[in-house]
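Why should sequence recovery work at all? Because a backbone constrains its sequence more than one might expect. Tight turns favour small or flexible residues, buried strands favour hydrophobic ones, and helices have their own preferences. The token representation captures these environments compactly. In the example below, the structure is given first.
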């Protein structure tokens, strides 16, 4: 080979090497681009899987080897190094879901059909999770593969929406609040749920529904101070993922429950004021308080609306009852005017007519008798008018309550003497047995009205030659009991049942034909209750009657 030939061969070899290097460089560059693109796609897939809580899995049909992507491991709450097997994978599922999944896997391997299931697992941390598994078989490579998604939040939101729709058909608000408490406890896996309305300038709360460890407790009123619920009021959300019982050591409910986690939200009125709250409490630390927050925000608007409507309904009911009471009072008022007030006027007019037409022909004794009857009718009319005016004034709030220190026995003795003449006229023995040196804080005019009405009735319904007694005794440190007893005609059971009812007519004539409207007893009852006491009666037809009433703020002077 000549030198020229050698140089030519070297030149060709260099050219060949140059082309090879260029080709290799091109291959390397393209491979690098492919790797970068693969990494980019892997990153995007990983990010997408994290955002949608979706991972992938594979099952080798022959070896039963299982592969999980990182997101599948996150859903199961296991470490990245965790190596799943078919048996370990199936053990995460609840019994019902496991049976469903095994049947789907067997059917897919047999028929090649794709399966798409919603199931429930218990994660490595003991958390219940709703998952969706989709899978199909690839017979060419002998693999089952598919996706695995955590749909707990999605499922819970759907269930909450469905609950809110269905609860629109519940019969009453109490049923709604109880149903909501049960739903939150079950769906959020919390041990205690309470739904409250705020009271007392938002310093206390009254439970509307209280669900504790699977059953409802009686509703209570409690103070918000030194409780996490007190921290909730005025905030959209308040949460303590763990250690809540240590943060509020004086909250007995938290201590009794051995509570770890707490989430609460305020219920707002339509004009932006706090009117209630919802609180959920768990015995385990809370891993995902944001999901609880989402659900509470969904139900709180509806709960607030129900609470607000409930309060409006209560107010409307109270107004309706008050209106009905006023109508009843008006009817009673006109009934008294139409009957009880008109009857004495008739007697009064008849007597004056006799005196006017036959006055010159009347003897002195006849004139005296007519004058007596005229005086009796005028007195009866005056007493009735007094009671009527007092009763009407009390209903309209025109009679003011003015308590003062009163020597009770002295006051009663004066009233007894006022009734003495009428008792003597009927030959009735009127006696007293009063506790001495007793001071009461009471309205003197009201006490006078009570005593005079009770004594008047006792004399009115006692037979001639009968007995009426008024007694008093200190029965507790500051309670005085007063007793007015007669041995007169008494009352039948039906009259007793209606005695203090405004709509019932219980007026009847006395043993000497004295008229009665029953209004005096109604007045007595209201005056006694104005003092914080009680008025009651014991009686049987033909065996007399005993009236009792109590007064507070009594003591020995």
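From this structural description, the recovered sequence reads:
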């Amino acid at each position: 080979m000549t030198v020229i030939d050698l140089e030519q061969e070297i030149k060709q070899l260099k050219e060949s090497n140059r082309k090879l290097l260029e080709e290799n460089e091109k291959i390397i560059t393209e491979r690098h681009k492919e790797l970068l693109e693969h990494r980019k796609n892997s990153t995007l897939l990983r990010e997408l899987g994290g955002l949608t809580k979706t991972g992938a899995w594979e099952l080798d049909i022959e070896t039963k080897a299982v592969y999980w992507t990182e997101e599948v491991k996150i859903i199961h709450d296991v470490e990245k190094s965790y190596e799943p097997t078919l048996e370990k994978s199936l053990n995460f599922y609840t019994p019902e879901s496991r049976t469903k999944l095994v049947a789907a896997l067997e059917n897919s391997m047999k028929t090649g059909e794709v399966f798409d299931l919603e199931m429930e697992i218990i994660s490595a941390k003991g958390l219940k999770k709703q998952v969706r598994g989709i899978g199909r078989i690839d017979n060419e490579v002998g693999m089952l593969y598919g996706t695995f998604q955590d749909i707990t939040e999605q499922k819970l939101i759907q269930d909450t929406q469905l609950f809110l729709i269905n609860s629109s058909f519940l019969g009453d608000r109490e049923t709604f609040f109880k149903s909501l408490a049960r739903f939150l406890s079950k769906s959020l896996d919390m041990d205690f749920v309470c739904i409250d309305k705020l009271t007392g300038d938002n310093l206390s709360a009254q439970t509307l529904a209280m669900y504790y460890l699977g059953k409802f407790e009686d509703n209570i009123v409690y103070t918000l101070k030194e409780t996490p619920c007190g921290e909730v009021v005025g905030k959209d959300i308040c949460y303590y993922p763990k250690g809540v019982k240590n943060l509020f050591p004086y909250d007995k409910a938290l201590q009794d429950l051995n509570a770890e986690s707490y989430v609460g939200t305020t219920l707002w009125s339509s004009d932006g004021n706090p009117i209630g709250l919802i609180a959920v409490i768990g015995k385990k630390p809370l891993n995902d308080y944001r999901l609880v927050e989402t659900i509470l925000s969904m139900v709180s608007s509806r709960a607030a609306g129900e609470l607000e409507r409930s309060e409006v309904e209560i107010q409307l009911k109270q107004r309706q009852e008050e209106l009905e009471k006023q109508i009843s009072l008006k009817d009673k008022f006109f009934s008294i005017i139409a009957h009880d007030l008109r009857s004495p006027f008739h007697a009064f007019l008849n007597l004056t007519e006799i005196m006017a037409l036959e006055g010159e022909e009347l003897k002195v004794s006849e004139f005296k008798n007519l004058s007596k009857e005229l005086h009796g009718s005028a007195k009866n009319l005056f007493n009735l008018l007094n009671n009527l005016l007092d009763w009407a004034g009390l209903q309209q709030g025109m009679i003011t309550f003015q308590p003062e220190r009163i020597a009770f026995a002295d006051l009663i003795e004066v009233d007894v003497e006022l009734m003495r003449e009428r008792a003597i006229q009927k030959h009735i023995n009127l006696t007293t047995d009063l506790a001495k040196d007793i001071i009461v804080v009471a309205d003197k005019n009201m006490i006078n009205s009570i005593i005079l009405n009770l004594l008047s009735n006792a004399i009115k319904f006692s037979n001639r030659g009968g007995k009426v007694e008024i007694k008093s005794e200190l029965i507790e440190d500051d309670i005085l009991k007063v007793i007015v007893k007669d041995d007169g005609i008494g009352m039948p059971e039906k009259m007793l049942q209606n005695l203090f009812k405004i709509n019932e007519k219980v007026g009847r004539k006395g043993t000497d034909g004295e008229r009665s409207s029953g209004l005096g007893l109604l007045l007595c009852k209201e005056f006694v209750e104005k003092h914080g006491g009680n008025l009651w009666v014991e009686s049987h037809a033909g065996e007399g009657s005993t009236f009792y009433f109590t007064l507070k703020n009594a003591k020995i002077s």
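A few observations help interpret the result. The chain has a mean pLDDT of 84.
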